[in-house]
């Protein structure tokens, strides 16, 4: 096949030309395919970054061993390991524009304190589970009829408000009745209804 003449448009490929035989769902299928490719690329980039971080840790370990057992002859080895470390850090910096990941500051502080970042996840999950149980307990207590005799919390609250504030409760009930009948728009202030 000969190359196209200068200035000619490239030939359309089957994937770039929309087909009317594909049906109305073809656009969403293509969009989902694009999302899958993007997710796969992001996962591959994340795995590449993880590999580079492992290489960096290995380089740091080798450098620390070399420095610990330092002898006059190992000066060139230390220099070589430092150059490798700089290259590794440069490679890792190249990933900053390829990944959109959010890392909580608390995780970084765990790492700085020499703690395992998985402890942050464990602590966070335990705290959320505890809050969830506490909230569910409150909801259950408010729904239970035994807490207020034979009344629900809402009925007991209404009864106590009515006995403590009879005038306000009467006005509130009148407003609710007007809204229920549709004679008053609940979003419009009462002063505008009278004018």
Automatic annotation (TrEMBL):
MF-aspect GO terms: transcription coregulator activity
Record's compositionally biased regions (Polar residues): 17-31
GO cellular component terms, A-Z: mediator complex
Any matching Pfam family: Med10
Keywords: Activator, Nucleus, Transcription, Transcription regulation
GO BP annotations listed: regulation of transcription by RNA polymerase II
Intracellular or extracellular location(s): Nucleus
Keyword Signal: no
InterPro entries xrefs: Mediator_Med10
Top-level taxon: Eukaryota
Disordered: annotated segments: 1-31
Function: Component of the Mediator complex, a coactivator involved in the regulated transcription of nearly all RNA polymerase II-dependent genes. Mediator functions as a bridge to convey information from gene-specific regulatory proteins to the basal RNA polymerase II transcription machinery. Mediator is recruited to promoters by direct interactions with regulatory proteins and serves as a scaffold for the assembly of a functional preinitiation complex with RNA polymerase II and the general transcription factors.
Family: Belongs to the Mediator complex subunit 10 family.
Subunit structure, as described in the record: Component of the Mediator complex.
PANTHER family attached to this UniProt entry: MEDIATOR OF RNA POLYMERASE II TRANSCRIPTION SUBUNIT 10
Protein name: Mediator of RNA polymerase II transcription subunit 10
Native species: Mortierella alpina (Oleaginous fungus)
Gene name as annotated: MED10
């Amino acid at each position: 096949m000969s190359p196209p003449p200068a200035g000619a448009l490239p030939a359309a490929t089957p994937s770039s030309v929309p087909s009317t035989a594909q049906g109305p769902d073809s656009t969403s299928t293509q969009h989902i395919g694009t999302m899958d490719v993007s997710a796969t690329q992001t996962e591959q980039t994340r795995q590449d970054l993880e590999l580079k971080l492992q290489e960096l840790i290995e380089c740091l370990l080798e450098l620390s061993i070399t420095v610990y057992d330092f002898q006059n002859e190992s000066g060139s080895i230390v220099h070589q390991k430092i150059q490798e470390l700089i290259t590794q850090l440069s490679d890792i910096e190249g990933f900053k524009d390829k990944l959109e990941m959010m890392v909580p500051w608390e995780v970084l502080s765990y790492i700085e304190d020499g703690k395992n970042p998985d402890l942050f996840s464990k602590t966070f999950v335990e705290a959320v589970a505890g809050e969830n149980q506490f909230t569910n307990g409150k909801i259950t207590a408010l729904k239970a009829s035994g807490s207020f005799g034979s009344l629900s919390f809402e009925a007991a609250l209404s009864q106590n408000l009515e006995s403590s504030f009879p005038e306000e409760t009467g006005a509130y009930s009148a407003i609710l009745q007007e809204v229920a009948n549709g004679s008053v728009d609940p979003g419009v202030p009462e002063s505008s209804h009278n004018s």
